[in-house]
Design a protein that fits this description.
The chain is mainly alpha-helical and 475 residues long. The chain has 2 domains: 23-185, no CATH class; 190-275 and 354-474, no CATH class. The protein contains 17 helices and no strands. It has helices spanning 6-21, 26-45, 49-68, 72-109, 127-142, 152-160, 173-176, 188-221, 228-259, 277-283, 286-300, 307-325, 329-347, 366-388, 392-402, 418-434, 447-461. Helix 3 packs across helix 4 (72-109). The protein is globular. The two termini are 17 Å apart.
Length: 475
């Protein structure tokens, strides 16, 4: 059930209508959220409901045992059970074939033939998101930062909350779970804000992301016959495709939650206006970046201790982040490349330099800031080539073709004109630039006019003939 489908629109209208008639009884309202979330998730494949229910029950039970245990050793054993069950599901469903295939290749490279077989495993949608969400819950209980939930319905609704279930933001129990214990009353202004944010996210998805996808897919699939300038353009199209796609989903998720009286954390803060890679990662997929920071990077020592340990920690965090995205060497290399980008900033203690909003400090000239933004965006687009490529060989071949430096305008026989799309991207960048200090562009003065213009943009420029799944559904 895609957010940009008529089926989901009908689903949400029904859910919204019934949900707010139940606000006199919080327990029934939360139970309704849980049921509708399971219906939403089961729409993809009902068989995988067993996994999310299993994960919910295990971590609900484990957290209670951790809290009641007197010995730290006992607490740690229960925590290990949570880690084993959640990461075990990820390994089996997401990484099993990757490890088996590479094990076979390793032995074959040594001249040894093996007969290990892979399995036809279907990746459950959203598994990387909800397992990390439940893991953070048990870890926070273990650390004493959170008391375990006493209500399985509330906890189940927190894990399966349908607006952010399949592609985030990855919510922390310390933030979202308590909201299920507080009576929610309908707030008109909050609902309007949610609608506006949903529509802006829809614009990002169907106008920017899906339009860019048509070109990006064509260019990456035919890169061997295209010149350098077209391939560079392909990486730029993919950069806006993945940003419009993923940040669009996050905006829609936050907007939907807001219409239901919930507050979800911001997941993107205009990342392509970043002045260095460290700032980019503070603005891109914030819920995942902060998850790895709090539960992996800092426990490893973070930016403290010997310089060799700091370098190790940087590479671990980026490699694991890359591997989280998928069982492919392209994602691992993408993580390594970003670690290499980040390392000089860490070594020269510049990784915390740009903490303000670009253009906010009037003493900093935009003529100095703009080149930094363009350099950071160029480095990001280069890394995206590995993220988008089917395999490592394809990524390096794509880059080799770029450095042949054959330039020129090429016609691609696909449905949209390149000039039209570039103009759309240009307008989108300008709109984001002038709204970079706001959570969403459809707010403040002239909000109704902005809303009408965006709705017209969705109807006129939306790409509907070839609808695209959300990219992060595969993770």
């Amino acid at each position: 059930m895609l957010f940009n489908s008529f089926t989901f629109l009908l689903f949400f209208v029904v859910v919204f209508s019934i949900y707010w008639t139940l606000n006199t009884n919080l327990k029934i309202q939360n139970a309704f959220i849980l049921i509708t979330s399971y219906v939403f998730y089961g729409w993809w494949d009902y068989r995988f409901l067993a996994l999310i229910i299993f994960s919910t029950y295990v971590d609900f039970y484990v957290a209670k045992r951790i809290h009641s245990a007197n010995l730290k050793k006992t607490k740690k054993r229960w925590l290990l059970l949570s880690l084993f069950s959640n990461l075990g599901m990820l390994i089996i469903f997401k990484y099993y074939n990757f490890f088996v295939d590479n094990w076979v290749l390793l032995w074959e490279s040594l001249g040894v033939q093996t007969s290990v077989h892979t399995m036809n495993i279907i990746l459950p949608v959203g598994i990387s998101f909800y397992t990390f969400q439940t893991l953070s819950y048990t870890i926070d209980v273990y650390r004493g930062q959170l008391k375990p939930s006493k209500n399985i319905i509330n906890f189940g609704a927190y894990v399966a909350f349908f607006p952010q279930l399949v592609a985030g933001p990855i919510e922390r129990a310390t933030h979202l779970l308590p909201q299920f214990s507080i009576k929610r009353n309908f707030n008109y202004n909050q609902a309007v804000s949610g609608v506006n944010l949903f529509i802006w996210g829809l614009f990002k998805k169907v106008v920017i992301a899906d339009s860019c996808a048509v070109y990006a897919n064509t260019i990456f699939e035919n890169y061997e016959s295209l010149n350098s300038s077209t391939l560079v353009l392909g990486s730029i199209y993919f950069a806006f495709q993945i940003y419009g796609d993923f940040s669009g989903y996050s905006d829609m998720a936050i907007g939907l939650a807001r219409m239901l009286g919930f507050d979800l954390r911001t997941n993107f803060r205009y990342p392509y206006f970043s002045r260095d890679i460290a700032e980019f990662w503070r603005r891109w997929h914030i819920s995942l970046s902060t998850w790895f920071r709090d539960y992996l990077y800092i426990p490893l020592g973070g930016s403290k201790g010997r310089i060799s340990n700091q370098i190790r920690n940087v590479f671990i965090i980026f490699i694991v982040s890359g591997f989280w995205h998928g069982a492919n060497w392209t994602f691992i290399f993408w993580g390594v490349l970003n670690a290499c980008y980040f390392l000089p900033l860490l070594l020269f203690k510049l990784n915390r330099k740009n903490l303000d909003e670009v253009g906010e400090d009037k003493t900093k000239s935009l003529f100095i800031e703009l080149p930094k933004i363009l350099i950071t965006f160029s480095l990001t687009c280069f890394a995206w080539i590995f993220f988008r490529a089917s395999n490592i060989s394809e990524a390096f071949n794509y880059i080799d073709r770029i450095f042949e430096l054959k330039v020129g305008i090429e016609y691609l026989s696909i449905e949209r004109y390149s000039v039209e799309l570039l103009l759309l991207i240009g307008v989108f960048v300008v709109v984001e630039w002038f709204n970079r200090l706001r959570e969403e562009p459809i707010s403040g003065k002239w909000s109704l006019l902005k809303l009408c213009m965006i709705l017209i943009g969705i109807m006129v420029f939306g790409s509907y003939s070839n609808p695209q799944d959300f990219i992060y559904f595969q993770f």
